[in-house]
Amino acid sequence: MNTPSQAQVRRAIAEAQTIVVKVGSSSLTKPSGHLDPERLNALVAAIARVRLMGGRVVLVSSGAIAAGFGPLGFEARPTDVADQQACAAVGQGLLMAQYENAFARYGLRVGQILITVSDTIAPQQYRNVRRTLERLLDLGAVPIINENDSLASNEIRFGDNDRLSALIANIVVADALVLLTDVDALYTAPPSEPGSKRISYVPNVEDALANVQVGGTGSNVGTGGMVTKMEAARVAAVSGIPAVLTCASNAGPAMMGDPVGTAFAPINDRGSSRRLWIGFAAHPQGTLVADAGASNAVRGGAASLLAAGVLEVKGNFAAGDAVWIDNEAGEHLAKGLVGFDSEEIPQMLGRNTAQLKRFLGEEYAHPLVHRDNLVLV
Ligand SMILES: Nc1ncnc2c1ncn2[C@@H]1O[C@H](COP(=O)(O)OP(=O)(O)O)[C@@H](O)[C@H]1O
Ligand SMILES: N[C@@H](CCC(=O)OP(=O)(O)O)C(=O)O
């Protein structure tokens, strides 16, 4: 696709029907570990304006831990995981109570959704998340999403809401992603470094990653810093979704397409949300090893993976799970959703469609991975 101009990207954001807005902890809370109602109310006012003009907004809000540690008597954001989970349990309630009040002033309802990594991986849960979000939006509510910090174990956490917001933008097929933080834009280096310069437009985020020096969080409550925000902008760009990054006080102008913060151009056309999910979220549970012919066909991008071209199956998985498709050298060629359980596949290997039908029955005469469920890596 042709690289759009900054004005085109800003216009696309202004015209977005469905917007995912992500706001960081430092934009909603005070360093003492309490909510900052004034700043939260200002953000709600900006979102309500878009909502009342007919836009659909999904809010991914951090801040549970940062709003909970003060009321629980901690002087600073705790580092112990159980402490953090307890703070999140308290802070999430406070956060939602404040959002509910603030949105109610505009006659708007909010709906809380707490997500774990597995909800974006397992196909059934993914479909449930999607259906609930769509229904909330259809009913005019503002879904407010956070990671389920109190239940997620450390090993299987997103840990930051930046990447989660990009996945949510895919799930709801958003037209724009707005990343709100405590810095007004992306800089060529962390703003604390002398000489760092503000960047107002990133035509290709993958190229920019090589030229920008990104650092960790600048506050005592944020988590991912600019690294995870750039990753979120990259996932959005690759998914065909324009993004803008700026400070929370610029939320209104950012959503209106004004030239604030840093705009990121999409670098691909929009894919189907299902394919994007396979590409970004689905965790492969096993591997199908393709022979040379099947490897070429898969690499060509338009072919299904047939049992006749598969040499080996590895791992335990069920029909519908994601699997790697590797070549004989063990290189990953593609990721796909497999049509059969791992135990069913060995008897199918090397057989063409007619043989599968004759020896195993009609229900086996199908590709192992259909091309619609396959994404090249
Ligand atoms: N190249 C950069 N440009 C802008 N900010 C950067 C850069 N590298 C690191 N940062 C830091 O990232 C911080 C924002 O990330 P973070 O603290 O995680 O915010 P949030 O809580 O909003 O998610 C900024 O305050 C800034 O200090
Ligand atoms: N889920 C955590 C926040 C995680 C996170 O991404 O924080 P931030 O870097 O402030 O966006 C919470 O609500 O405290």
TrEMBL record:
User: Which residues does the record give as ATP binding sites?
Assistant: K22, T181, D182, T223, G224, G225, M226, V227, T228, K229
Q: Where, subcellularly, is it found?
A: Cytoplasm
Write out the catalysed reaction.
L-glutamate + ATP = L-glutamyl 5-phosphate + ADP
Which Pfam families does the protein's record reference?
Answer: AA_kinase, PUA
- Binding residues for substrate, per the UniProt record? S62, D149, N161
Its annotated pathway reads:
Amino-acid biosynthesis; L-proline biosynthesis; L-glutamate 5-semialdehyde from L-glutamate: step 1/2
Which of UniProt's keywords are assigned here? Amino-acid biosynthesis, ATP-binding, Cytoplasm, Kinase, Nucleotide-binding, Proline biosynthesis, Transferase
A molecular function (GO) term: glutamate 5-kinase activity
Which E.C. number(s) belong to this protein? 2.7.2.11
Question: What is the top EC class of this enzyme, as a single word?
Answer: transferase
List the InterPro entries.
AceGlu_kinase-like_sf, Asp/Glu/Uridylate_kinase, G5K_ProB, Glu/AcGlu_kinase, Glu_5kinase, Glu_5kinase/COase_Synthase, Glutamate_5-kinase_CS, PUA
Q: Which CDD domains match?
A: AAK_G5K_ProB (cd04242), PUA_G5K (cd21157)
List each copy of the PUA domain by range: 286-369
Q: NCBIfam families attached here?
A: proB (TIGR01027)
Functional summary from the UniProt entry: Catalyzes the transfer of a phosphate group to glutamate to form L-glutamate 5-phosphate.
Q: Which family does it belong to?
A: Belongs to the glutamate 5-kinase family.
Protein name in UniProt: Glutamate 5-kinase
